[in-house]
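URGENT: need a sanity check before tomorrow's submission.

F., can you look over the NADH-quinone oxidoreductase subunit N record below? I want to be sure the sequence and structure line up before it goes out.
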Amino acid sequence: MEERFIIELTQSLKNFLPEVSLTVTLSLVILLDLIFGRRFKNIGAFVSLAGLVVTLFFTIKQYGGSYQIFRGMFVVDPYSTFFKFVFLLSAFVIVIFSLQSYELRETSARRRIGEYYFFILSLTLGAFLMAGSVNLIMMYLSLELVSISSYILAGYIKESERSSEASMKYVIYGALSSGLMIYGISLVYGLTGELNIYAINASFLSSGYSPIVLMISLVLILAGFGYKISAVPFHYWTPDVYEGAPITVTAFLSVSSKAAGFAMLVRFLKASFIDRTITLGIEGAWAVIQGLPLTEIVAVLSALTMTVGNIIAIWQNNLKRMLAYSSIAHAGYILMGVVVMQNLGISAMLIYFLAYLFMNLGAFYCVMLVAEKTGSEDIEVYKGLGYRAPFLSIVFTIFLVSLTGIPPTFGFIGKLYLFSALINAKVIWLAVVGVLNSVVSLYYYIRVVRNMFLGDPESGKEPINFSPAHIVVMLILVIPTLLFGVYFTPIVNFAQISVAMFGLR
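Structure tokens as predicted:
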């Protein structure tokens, strides 16, 4: 028995190397920072970058397989591996942002910042675990690892009152949503006596269930997920936290934390609440367990989320706050892929996430650079920026156009596939709501562009110059935003392959 356990553990660890690599890296970051941190301020950043590259190598080797590890607590499949690529790309870009961040530069002059990179990596590790967890307890623990790391990062600039306030609000809302989610999980366990989400599904199909209790548990669990993905009405923390946190942290949360929430949400819904004994058509459609209005609930959440996010964004004058509401709206767009309840919708969701990674991180990077040069995040400082910083203004415009979903950008391709999936599934009303919301979003994005190119530059303002390193980072983000808006076949194939093997046990 002991020998068999050792063999199973060894085999599981072989398929767990990306997570092991991240764990070793974050341990090295904090250790080396303690030893060398005073002399080499950025040692944590460079160790993090090296560790992320090693983790990427292990993740690439892992792609294509589909198996369970640690006795069914986690799965490794192309779906989880796809999200691991998203998390790694996001973390890598954020570490580079952090090396150039004026907020962190001021902080590093007062104290070591190795713990900052430690929590960036621990959040990434938690996101990895969220993408592959198929056990209710491990799902909850991995979500809490992401949440606790997020709380600390949001309040990392301890000298800043608004950063501390952001962290406190994040903790309060997070604790409430975690309580709701764990209660929903306990109800599911009480109904089935199972923790593995595939076993839960089998129990529902074979033993029956109480529709009322199941509905209550689903709503409670969706509340927990809704908080993580900033879905209405669980979004209240998002604007205050995004505005108060350091810009690098805000950008990271808007991509990695949201992607982790969606990765887990889709796996949980498909594994637990879809009748896998029924096949609907050739499009990979899913049959929801009888009597459960899952599609309707998610559709209403999607419509509310994109509408509330876009309408409130119109009135914002702070760019970080505007992008926070924009992030809420984009959660609504991504939920459209879940509403479709078929592989076509999930592959569209994956395509959109890759687009969102480049265009959203790029937008936040431009805001960070302008805030460093002007000392403000308000939209008023962008007046005449097209004359003072033409390259940044053009790049920022491309990111905003992509966020709107206008061709020929990656954002347009993402929305095109989402709307096509909705129309294919005959959810026409939600597609119409999505198109109307895209038109609304055009107003507040174009408002920024208008200020940059049509606003009168303030007299006496000198041209704003950026270092070659800044320009390189902008190019790294803007080139894929344009390239994949024209040549998107490899991305589409990548997403479709990842979904085709999704859910294999």
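My own read: Residues 295-505 form one domain. The longest strand covers residues 67-69. If you see anything odd, call me.
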